[in-house]
Every structure is written in C-alpha cells, then in structure tokens.
Amino acid sequence: MTTKLSKTGEEPQDANPVAEGAVTAVDPRLLVRQQGFGGYIGEFKRKMRSGELGSLPVVIGLIIIGAVFQLNDSAFLGAENLSNLFVSSAGTGLIAVGIVFVLILGEIDLSVGSVSGLAAAVFAVLNINNGMPEWLALILAILTGAVIGAVHGFFFAKIGVPAFVVTLAGLLGWNGLMLQVLGENGTINLDDSGLVAKLTNYYFSDVIAAYGLAAIGVLGFFALSWNDARRREAVGIPSRPLSEIALRTVVLAIPAVVVAALLNQYKGLPLALVIFLGVVVALDFVLRRTPYGRKVFALGGSTEAASRAGINVPFIRISVFAIAGTMAAVGGMFFASQINAANQGSGAGSLLMNAIAAAVIGGTSLFGGRGKTWSALLGVLVIQSIASGMAMLGIASAVQYMITGAVLLAAVVIDSVSRRTQKTAGRA
Q1: Are 92 and 355 in contact (CB under 8 A)?
Q2: What span, in angstroms and rounded, lies between the C-alpha atoms of 331 and 133?
Q3: Tens digit of each residue's pLDDT (9 = 90 or more) over 263-287
Q4: Alpha-carbon gap, residue 167 to 179, rounded angstroms
Q5: Distance CA 400, CA 380 (A)
Q6: What is the mean pLDDT of the chain?
C-alpha cells in the first residue's frame, strides 16, 4: 500500500484504500513460509469460493469410482485389471490429448474418430498389401493425420468455415475414404509380430522397468520444481521452499510406487503406458513452457486480443488442428494394435464421444482458454474405469453410456459454475 500527502501537506492519505472486510490473497508459493502448512487450508477455502477447482473434482471422482467398484469386486484394483485399464486407455487418451489443444482454442474437432480409422487403413494397405517397410508405413500414416488436420485448420482459419462444419464434413468424408482404401474385403490383418502389434501387446517384464519409470517421474518432478524455485529466487519472485517441494514429491511418489508394484505383479510395464505418459509430458511442456503454448492459450482467451498482440492467428489455428489430426492418427495405430487389424469399424462407435468426453471430464474447458494435457489422462481414466468396472459387474453397456453421459454433463456444469464464480470474484 502506498501513501501520499494531502493537498495541505499535513496528513498522509491512502492512495489505494482497501475495502473494509476484504481479504488479501496470499501468493500460494509463500503460504508455507508465512503461515506454515496450515495456510493451505485458508488458500483451499479461497479457491473454492472463487471457483478455482482445478483437477480436484475429477480426482475425487476417480477415488469414488475406485472405491465403489472395489467394494463390489475385489479384482477391480487388482494388478491384471489395472494393467488392462491403462493399456485400453492409451488409444482414446492419445486422441483426447489432441482434442485438448482444440478445446483450448474454444473450438471442436468432430473428425478425429474417422481420421484415426483412415490412418490405420493407410498403414495396413501400405505395409500389408504393398509390402512397404513397417516403420515407413507408420510414419506416412501419422503424416496422413497431420495433413488432414492442417486441411481442416486451413478451411477454418483462412476460409472462415466454422470448425464444427469443417470437421463434421471430415467425419463423413474421411470415413468414406477409409472404406474405399480398405477395399471390398473391409478387413486387413496386421503382422502379429510387427511394430504396431507391439504397441499394446508388449510389456517390459523386468521389475526395474516399472520402478525405474516411477523413479524418473518423481525425480523429474522434484528437479523441475527445485529448478523453478531457484530461478524465481534469483530474480526476486516468490518461490516454494524446499520443504514444500519435498512434501509434494513424496505425495507423488506414493501412488507412483504403488502402481509400479501392481504392474510388476502382472506382466510388467506396458509399452502403451510408457508412450502415453511420454506424449502427455512432452505436449504438457509445449503448452506450458514454450512461447507457442502461451500463444495457444492467448488465442483461446481472446482472438481479438491475441491478434492485436501480434500473434499469427491463422498459423496457430492450423497448427492446433494439425496436432489434433496427428494425435488421432497415433491413437488409430493403438486401436489397430488392440485388434491386430484395420477394418470398417475402425474409428467408429463411441470413440469420438469418449475422446471429447475424456478431455472435458479431465478439466479442459469447453469455453476455451483453459486446459492441460493431463486432463486427457485423468478423463480417460474416469471413462475406462467406469467401463471396466461395469463390465466386471456384468452391467449392460446401455447403462454405461448413460452414466458416462451423466459424468460428462456434471463436468460441463462444474466448468460453467466455476467460470461464473470466477467472474463474480473478479478472477476471469
């Protein structure tokens, strides 16, 4: 608070008077230093009042889902089911990561299911029918998704066609092209010992693999947090103390070690999980730590403001849809791996809705400007946990769809209420 002299020069007056009863927000990085760990209780209450829920609802939802199904079937949290759950989540989760980028712009991509199926068909035709080396066919299939996404982005960013219409046309058109590529038989079986087949069928059986991945993740989190704190201290910006960083690291290490131990009780560490986590971490870095990521968020917040700030709006839009197309193609490879074939059902069914629902349920806003790649991970775990638990209990898939729909609606309601609360609190 600064002061200034009155016109008579007698008494100082407040230049920025604080309203009576107002509570001054404390920088979260200074809570431990100023108020001890108990300060987090007050900060938690402030965030709840202002609508800053973050990933809390979905984390609580996962805990409730796990507890309910575990009470009904003790095998739900067993090693085999958890391993299968992670593997089955990879394909949808990878597609959902691309959807996160599009949703941050405040747009939607309805074509990702068809693009994933077309990419699988392109790979199968090139590799099986035409004898192309598998690695080259895989690269070309993924590039197919990237090019398709860029085409969608071009029509949206340069021509001005709404993204909903462009990608809806893509949903129909690319599905038709997939059927044409597959030919009359409609099914092309893949090499069961090939690279794509291993995406969801290969496990690192050595015990050190799962524990090593857990250790790398935990130590990486600690190193990044500590380095961030040092950089902030060097320029005089508030930073988290070492004691808090250590506590957060321990909180992360406990579930990481437990999951690693469970995976080792079955077949070991799934390759699908390693790739999924690697993509999530890499694209999270792109979103949160690079100028490109900041431009994506800026564009999602306000297109006009981003344009006035000198951001190349068409380029960002085209590139975001290209990322979504690329991730759809990668996800398509995982689905082809699960059934070891590309067929007329590739990319169909509830895949599109599950991918969008995973991103939204995980915490990405449908209104743009807010989200992270970890949303895809959390959201797809919710969806696959519901599907897995209900399958184990023998509940009809119709009920599963209704419950997933209700969870999606709840996520959107929470997002809407959160935004309204933040506006009321002057934080949005």
Answers
A1: yes
A2: 20
A3: 999 999 999 999 999 999 999 999 9
A4: 18
A5: 14
A6: 84
Question: In this predicted structure, what is the pLDDT of residue 107?
Answer: 92
Supply the pLDDT for residue 4.
45
Report pLDDT digits (tens) over 290-317. Answer: 999 999 999 988 888 888 988 999 999 9
Q: Determine the Cα–Cα distance for residues 156 and 165; give it in Å rounded to an integer.
A: 9
Q: SS3 string of the chain?
A: CCEEECCCCCCEEECCCCCCCCCCCCCHHHHHHHHCCCHHHHHHHHHHHHCCCCCHHHHHHHHHHHHHHHHHCCCCCCHHHHHHHHHHHHHHHHHHHHHHHHHHCCCCCCCHHHHHHHHHHHHHHHHHHCCCCHHHHHHHHHHHHHHHHHHHHHHHHHHCCCHHHHHHHHHHHHHHHHHHHHCCCCEEECCCCCHHHHHHHCEECCHHHHHHHHHHHHHHHHHHHHHHHHHHHHCCCCCCCHHHHHHHHHHHHHHHHHHHHHHHHCCCEEHHHHHHHHHHHHHHHHHHHCHHHHHHHHHHHCHHHHHHCCCCHHHHHHHHHHHHHHHHHHHHHHHHHHHCEEECCCCCCCHHHHHHHHHHHCCCCCCCCCCCHHHHHHHHHHHHHHHHHHHHCCCCHHHHHHHHHHHHHHHHHHHHHHHHHHHHCCCC
Residue 172: which of 338, 358, 332, 352 has the closest Cα?
352
CB 317 within 8 A of CB 156: yes
Distances (CA, A) of 138 to 204, 232, 301: 22, 43, 36
196 within 8 A of 341, measured Cβ to Cβ: no
